[in-house]
TrEMBL record:
Protein's UniProt name: Oxidoreductase
Database matches in CDD domains: fer2
Keyword Phosphoprotein in record: no
Domain 2Fe-2S ferredoxin-type positions: 11-87
rRNA processing keyword on record: no
Species per Swiss-Prot/TrEMBL record: Streptomyces bungoensis
Keywords in alphabetical order: 2Fe-2S, Iron, Iron-sulfur, Metal-binding, Oxidoreductase
Length: 179
């Protein structure tokens, strides 16, 4: 850790972002979203509310969906971060959810779309791992994959807001991927 009274405390961290290692000197107050957008030039994740309420900034940290506008970058030392730019892996073919969003026209202005897609990727992993949601039938066996119907999908994506109201097509796109 280093400290400069004008700048505040800093620490060197290493992140793997979209499969590439990055070693950065980071101010302890810097959030992941600003690091991604300003330091690494990854502008897919959007700053919507800057309060963790809209989900436009959603990325995956070690496979879990997070609001990057709230997460201090210094806490992620050694973590794997995946943004919308890294979902396709090789960059050649779009991720199945990206393709489904395009095919279903599951966006209007597109501002929330990167966060919606990253959230959907994380949500699919959570359901596959057996994590229940508020609407999961209590009779479902614990620890087994949770079946995803429209109600489950809507509940699990409820932290991602769309001002344009593209919700029905977003749910359609997710359903296309799980079929």
């Amino acid at each position: 850790m280093t400290s400069d009274n004008r700048l505040g405390p800093h620490s060197e961290i290493t992140l793997r972002v979209n499969g590439k290692p990055h070693t950065l000197l980071v101010d302890h107050r810097r959030v992941l979203l600003d690091l991604l957008r300003e330091d690494l030039g990854l502008t897919g994740s959007k700053k919507g509310c800057d309060h963790g309420q809209c989900g436009a900034c959603t990325v995956l940290a070690d496979g879990r969906r997070v609001n990057s506008c709230l997460l201090l970058a210094v806490t992620l030392d050694g973590s794997e971060v995946t943004t919308i730019e890294g979902l396709s892996g090789d960059g050649e073919e779009p991720h199945p959810l990206q393709r489904a969003f395009l095919e279903r026209d599951a966006f209007q202005c597109g501002y929330c779309t990167p966060g919606q897609i990253c959230s959907a990727v994380g949500m699919l992993a959570e359901a596959a791992a057996g994590h229940p949601s508020h609407v999961t039938d209590p009779a479902e066996p614990s620890g087994r994959p949770v079946p995803l119907d429209r109600t489950e999908i809507r509940e699990r994506l409820s932290g991602n807001l769309c001002r344009c109201g593209a919700y029905p097509r977003i749910v359609d796109a997710v359903e296309d991927v799980i079929r």
